[in-house]
Amino acid sequence: MICPRCGFDNLPGNDDCTKCLVDLAQLDGPNGQDRVQASLIADHVSSLHPHQPTIIPSNTTLEDAIRLMTDTGADVLLITSDDAKIIGMLTERDLLHAADLFPAGFSTHRVTDHMTKSPATVTPDDTLARALQKMDVGGLRQLPVVTDGKPIGVICVQDLIRHLTQLCRD
Questions:
Q1: pTM
Q2: What pLDDT digit, counting tens, does each position of 72-124 carry?
């Protein structure tokens, strides 16, 4: 890496310039090779304008959850504790699994029995690459956006795809 101060050509991986001892570590961040890579590295989750979350308390029944999802068109419900912090999420996939396991009377069960506990989350300041990585590793289609553990939004894989395809069009 070329030192911006003295112009010395340092060995790759040096944290300090061998000649003038200026800190080079801050210059050794990832660089995007194109607009899509640069956006994934630099842009934040907030740039996707997360959707308003549909939040339910932990004592909600599956029947009420299904009704709420049907009425609002929500793909995911975020379950919160008494202090409004996220403790789980319930997706359409979770409901199908519950119906398969408990065909008779499953709707009287509590959402806490079938939710994804302690779901992966992101903050508005996380990078798009971080959100994409969490979705990929967890096999997630939706990802809650939180501040101080409290849900403030939801992003979905379609939001990321829409953002990336817009970059390709521009």
A1: 0.79
A2: 999 999 999 999 999 999 998 888 877 776 667 777 889 998 899 999 999 99
CA distances from 86 to 67, 79, 134, 166 (A): 21, 6, 17, 31
Residue ranges per domain, the chain?
1-30, 45-169
User: Do strands 86-91 and 150-156 pair parallel, antiparallel, or not at all (unpaired)?
Assistant: unpaired
Q: How many CA atoms lie within 13 A of 108 on its CB side?
A: 2
The SS3 call for residue 3 is coil
60 neighbors 79 (Cβ within 8 angstroms): yes
* 8 A C-beta contact, residue 136 and residue 143: no
DSSP codes, 81-126 = -TTS-EEEEEEHHHHHHHHHH-TTTGGGSBGGGTSEES---B-TTS
Tokens of 77: 């419900």
Which of the listed CATH numbers 3.10.580.10, 3.30.365.10, 3.30.460.80, 3.90.230.10 matches domain 45-169? 3.10.580.10
Please name the residues in contact with 23: beta carbons below 8 A apart, sequence gap of 6 or more. Answer: 15, 16
Question: At 129, which helix (H) or strand (E)?
Answer: helix 128-138
What pLDDT digit, counting tens, does each position of 38-79 carry? Answer: 899 899 999 999 999 999 999 999 989 999 999 999 999 999
Where is 144: in which H helix or E strand?
Answer: strand 142-147
